[in-house]
Write a structure and sequence with these properties.
heterodimer, A: MetI-like fold, 2 domains, 13 helices, 77% helix, B: alpha/beta, D-Maltodextrin-Binding Protein, domain 2, nine-stranded mixed beta sheet, 18% strand
Chain lengths: 279, 356
């Protein structure tokens, strides 16, 4: 990107980049360096925190659980988001606008508020319980404080990101391709499978990457909606600091989570190209 | 939903503060003279909600009127922030409150200022109020509360009852906070109140193992614990008395017992290295004066730790005060000094135990 900018503006283009580079340096790189540093220097120069992380089965268990949850949430978002984005793109006009507005609206609502709203909806006295009772299921199943509830909460929060990523790519698919396929005798399903789906693949990859990576950092939602067994690594990092004041161990955990995330980015970049993430 | 509103309003407050800070920074070069004339404000870390309303009306306003020092509030209360302030020398707040377990930790780690005897007048305080470089302010208690519709003949009257899933079948909830939960497990297991410390960690965990299947959720925030009980998500809960009394005053189908309540003390402390430490101690002295403290406690449902405050508490409110003599004697206090050396070890074990 820097090289590209330099070609476009030959007169001191770096001057334009200076503010953003300074911003990133001061607010991202320096604190990140501090986290990495404190993971090996608290309380003294040591690799003990990393040794503990990888030798204590507990941390690995939570790390594995974090990735498994992120995968589940990503798949759920894709299954729900793809038809939604597809419908929004294909039915241009009012319906698409309404759907996208609804999606965006939920993005503007504070996620803590949304999490508490789920507690009410899924709770003992909520509408879901009442529906079960009306259907004669007594006592109704307990949904709140289970994996179902925490997954639902996270899917709800992350779905807009998936839909926006899909929509951005799908909108650029020329409907003429589909008409051409059908004109050549493909039934609508075959036209979708052989033309639309492959063309929308970059959207799927983008959406999944964004949702997966955002989900890795979640913690309030699983703590409030799930059982203690749904605790994710980010939550553990928070408690490590709040309750144990163990900045070293917390930093080491954060670095491992970051490394795992960067690993994913690396794979993504290898096979898709990082510049595609921005559409 | 009250939670949402609170979250919203605190966010709005935060935005306002950011706005004020930005405005302040922009205007700074032009207002130096006027700032020198009036006193610098004091930044107090608050718990928000009812706590902040009560503190603003009964502690902050009279102090500002008396001294001309304006008080600005910062939320939420965060121990990690206190630690970060001492490390970085950047102060978001000068004064905060700490519970018993935290004050020993903070004092040992050098996160708080030494009690300043040039400002604090100990003759006006009870002898045990200055503790670990903090000043005791108010007490809150972790008590047993239950749904009246679930236990119409009265709920669990002791922690042994709370653990007794045959006599009191139903779901349970406790705070996800080892230092508070372990003593309760020992009481349930038959350890007498005066033999709880040092904590027999293995015994406590084996007692906890028995109640674990009935615990639907471990609460982490006061607001959350209140919602769980109000909505009947859990049948019996170990919860702060103040949250329970709020529910009872709202006519929720909830009752509680003071018996074996676990008292925590909240202490005012000054963040280590705060440039406004003198004013901070001045504020603290005024905040624990008998009448102001009594009014604060009445509004926020706490028990004053200045014994002289009780004379300002109407008889009708005494039953809601954890420090009223009749209630105090059936409860117990944590021994934070004896628990401190064990704290890191059992907290870690607890964290891992609940997540497995």
């Amino acid at each position: 990107m820097i090289a590209h900018a330099a070609k476009a503006h030959r007169e001191r283009p770096w001057l334009l980049l200076l503010p953003v580079v300074a911003f990133l340096g001061v607010f991202f790189l320096v604190p990140l360096g501090q986290v990495v540093a404190s993971s090996v220097t608290e309380p003294e120069l040591t690799l003990a925190h990393y040794r503990e992380f990888f030798s204590d089965g507990f941390y690995l268990l939570v790390l594995g659980r974090t990735f498994a949850t992120a995968l589940l949430v990503t798949l759920a978002c894709l299954v729900l988001g793809y038809p939604l984005a597809y419908a929004a793109v294909r039915r241009e006009g009012t319906i698409a606008l309404v759907m996208l507005t609804l999606i965006t609206l939920s993005l503007w609502t504070n996620f803590l508020v949304r999490t508490y709203a789920w507690m009410v909806i899924l709770g003992n006295r909520g509408p879901v319980s009442a529906a079960f009772r009306a259907l004669g299921v007594v006592p109704p199943p307990e949904i709140l404080f289970t994996r179902v509830a925490s997954t639902l909460g996270m899917v709800h929060i992350l779905l807009p990101f998936m839909v926006m990523a899909l929509y951005a790519v799908m909108r650029r698919i020329d409907p003429a391709y589909l008409r051409a396929a059908q004109g050549l005798g493909a039934p609508p399903r075959a036209a979708f499978r052989h033309v639309f789906l492959p063309l929308s693949a970059p959207g799927i990859v983008n959406g999944c990457t964004i949702v997966f990576i955002l989900c890795l950092g979640f913690y309030v939602t699983p703590v409030l909606l799930g059982s203690p067994r749904e605790q994710m690594l980010a939550g553990l990092i928070g408690r490590q600091i709040e309750e144990l004041l163990d900045f070293g161990q917390a930093s080491a955990m954060a670095v491992v989570l970051l490394a795992a995330t960067l690993g994913l980015f690396w794979i993504y970049n290898r096979f898709v190209g990082i510049d595609k993430l921005w559409g | 939903m009250s939670t949402g509103n609170e979250a919203q309003s605190s966010r709005r407050k935060a935005l306002k503060q950011i706005g004020a800070a930005v405005a302040g920074a922009v205007a700074a070069p032009y207002v130096i003279t006027s700032r020198a004339a009036s006193a610098e404000p004091l930044y107090v870390n608050t718990w928000g909600g009812v706590w902040e309303e009560a503190a603003a009306a009964n502690l902050f306003a009279p102090f500002t009127k008396e001294t001309g020092i304006e008080i600005k509030t910062v939320s939420p209360v965060s121990f990690a922030k206190l630690a970060a302030q001492a490390r970085t020398g950047v102060y978001e707040f000068d004064v905060t409150t700490l519970g018993g377990g935290d004050i020993v930790r903070a004092n040992d780690a050098g996160l708080i200022e030494k009690a300043d005897d040039s400002v604090i007048d100990r003759s006006k305080l009870a002898p045990d109020m200055v503790f670990q470089n903090g000043v005791a302010s108010h007490a809150f208690s972790t008590i047993i509360a239950w749904r009246k519709d679930r236990y119409p003949n009265g709920g669990p009257q002791s922690w042994a009852d709370f653990w007794d899933l045959k006599r009191f079948p139903g779901s349970r909830c406790l705070q996800s906070y080892a230092a508070r939960v372990l003593p309760l497990a020992l009481l349930a297991d038959g350890v007498p109140k005066d033999k709880l410390y040092p904590i027999d960690v293995n015994r406590a965990f084996s007692a906890l193992e028995r109640i674990k299947p009935a615990i639907r959720v471990w609460w982490t925030q006061g607001q959350q614990s209140q919602q769980l009980l109000r909505d009947g998500e859990v049948d019996a809960i170990g919860i702060w008395h103040s949250r329970t009394i709020e529910l009872i005053k709202q006519n929720a189908a909830v009752d509680f017992t003071w018996n074996q309540g676990e008292i925590d003390r909240a202490y005012w402390v000054v963040s280590k290295g705060s440039p406004r430490a003198k004013q901070a101690w001045r504020f603290i002295q005024s905040a624990v004066s008998p009448e102001r403290l009594a009014r604060f406690c009445l509004q926020a449902n706490y028990g004053p730790l200045n014994p002289k405050s009780l004379q300002y508490v109407p008889q009708s409110e005494m039953r809601f005060m954890p420090t009223a003599p009749a209630n105090y004697k059936v409860q117990f206090e944590q021994d934070v000094v004896k628990a401190e050396p064990q704290l890191a070890e059992f907290t870690k074990r607890f964290e891992q135990w609940i997540a497995r």
